[in-house]
Design a protein that fits this description.
The complex is a heterodimer of chains A (95) and B (369). Chain A is of the alpha+beta class. Chain A is 39% helix and 25% strand. The radius of gyration of chain B is 20 Å and the shape is globular. Chain B is of the alpha/beta class. The chains are: A alpha+beta (95), B alpha/beta (369).
Chain lengths: 95, 369
């Protein structure tokens, strides 16, 4: 399972795109897709190049509304990344 | 504004020509009637209209899409409309250089079918064995960085070799493995007596697939599609009639699924005469089984109608002769006896792993050059 030190990026089969219909961001992969909320879309955009989970968490904390507890941000972002990992939508390397 | 639900996937059947002759093929029985294929310009227009309709993915399939000499410009045309492009292929004719050109044109993923890991089994079901050439094509896809799905249609002749198919997917570095039991319509219904496995064989395969899914989580997505003949509830066929999928045959007929031509009580529009937008929103056959108004008892009041959409209309027509009947795969169908009888015949049949009797009818059409 991924942790703060994992290096990751979206897997080769995953394409991030804006839905021309709804304006929302989508992850497309073979035969299916996932509609993202605003926060998930920002996380996914950070994963289009290889990066560490720690960097993603820092960037999301910088962009969060003032006063949002850091542990809440970290928890939500990690939960989303792990959901992608379980679906095989991330390429995960070591430290 | 478009009337009706938003379609997500265009299934583009580019040709019904195919070097293989699988006895469970999902193409129509009357293959030769569809030989007047849409040209490059017509498909390019279809992709543009599909994108305008909100479609996000296109499956380029057939028959064998590799026999179309214009596959490269077709991939480029779909890519120009920002569609996610899946190539659904037998991998034959195997050609690594051509695959490189298709990847460069914008292909997103490739699905290669494996008929069997046993050469005799492959020859029995497809009329020939191409495993080595298919594995070369799969290796070429991986070398290009193309995400690979292996697809195996399961039936009596190969279902015992599910562990082989899992090992093959691991060896090839596949991202997905689809272990899909045959759906008994069209050619497969004609061959049902030879193809339907016993319940025990299905259960054993399901257990192997389930263990592999756990073990390979995050690495290979392992899908196992049960035969609806053993499910007691119908499958959510195509996620509902004319709801998420739009299929175009090689000669331009628009359908909600692969098998809908088998419903001979319905007429179908053609993209040569109508826009996708017009036929999707207004065609009477597309509207025939949308929503719930068409449903008979017991579907009409069934709490599961929102998850299975009443099951498969093509199966209802094929088995009962009425496309609006409850899918006989459902244990609540008044004609579930038809499915029970087919199960009983599968149990009686010799459980010989070497594909044997009864003989099957291979699909026939002029084959690829």
């Amino acid at each position: 399972m991924i942790d703060r030190n994992s290096r990751l990026r979206l897997a080769r089969q995953v394409r991030l795109k804006a839905d021309p219909r709804s304006g929302k961001h989508l992850l497309l992969f073979p035969e299916r897709g996932l509609e993202l909320n605003e926060i998930a879309a920002r996380v996914a955009a950070l994963c289009t190049e290889e990066t560490t989970v720690a960097e993603i968490l820092d960037r999301m904390a910088e962009a969060a509304a003032e006063g949002t507890p850091r542990e809440r941000i970290d928890g939500e972002v990690l939960e989303f990344l792990r959901a992608l990992e379980v679906r095989g939508l991330l390429t995960v390397g070591g430290v | 504004m478009t009337e009706g639900p938003r379609p997500y996937t265009l299934v583009a059947e580019l040709t019904y020509r195919c070097p293989l002759a699988c006895g469970y093929c999902s193409n129509p029985l009357e293959l030769a009637r569809h030989a007047d294929e849409l040209d490059t310009a017509a498909w390019t227009r279809v992709f543009a209209e599909a994108a305008a309709l909100g479609i996000l993915q296109v499956n380029l399939t057939g028959g064998e899409p590799l026999v179309r000499p214009d596959l490269e410009p077709l991939v480029a045309a779909a890519r120009a409309k920002d569609l996610y492009i899946n190539l659904i292929t037998s991998g034959i004719p195997s050609d690594a250089e051509r695959l490189g050109r298709l990847a460069a044109a914008g292909l997103d993923s490739i699905q290669i079918s494996i008929q069997d890991s046993d050469p005799r089994g492959a020859a029995w079901i497809a009329g020939r064995d191409d495993l080595d050439a298919k594995l070369e094509m799969a290796a070429a896809a991986r070398a290009l960085g193309l995400p690979l799905t292996l697809n195996v249609v399961l039936h009596r002749g190969n279902i015992a070799r599910v562990p082989d198919f899992i090992a093959l997917a691991e060896r090839l570095g596949a991202a997905r493995l689809e272990l899909a039991n045959t759906q008994y319509l069209g050619w497969a219904l004609a061959n049902r007596q030879a193809l339907l496995p016993s319940q025990a064989a299905v259960e054993e395969a399901r257990i192997h697939a389930s263990a592999a899914r756990q073990r390979l989580r995050g690495q290979i997505e392992v899908l196992f599609v049960r035969p609806d003949y053993y499910a007691d509830r119908p499958r959510a066929c195509m996620d509902g009639w004319a709801r998420r999928y739009l299929l175009i045959t090689p000669d331009g007929i628009a359908l909600p699924c692969h098998q809908a031509l088998g419903i001979t009580s319905l007429d179908w529009p053609n993209v040569r005469a109508q826009s996708l937008e017009a036929l999707w929103s207004s065609d009477p056959s597309f509207r025939a089984f949308r929503g719930e108004d068409w449903m008979p008892a017991p579907c009409r009041t069934c709490p599961e109608r929102e998850t299975d959409f009443g099951g498969c209309r093509c199966q209802a027509f094929a088995l009962v002769g009425d496309a609006a009947a409850t899918d006989p795969a459902c244990a609540l169908s008044p004609r579930h006896d038809l499915v029970i009888a087919a199960r009983a015949r599968a149990e009686e049949a010799v459980s010989d792993l070497a594909p044997a009797s009864p003989p099957i009818r291979l699909r026939r059409f002029r084959s690829a050059p």
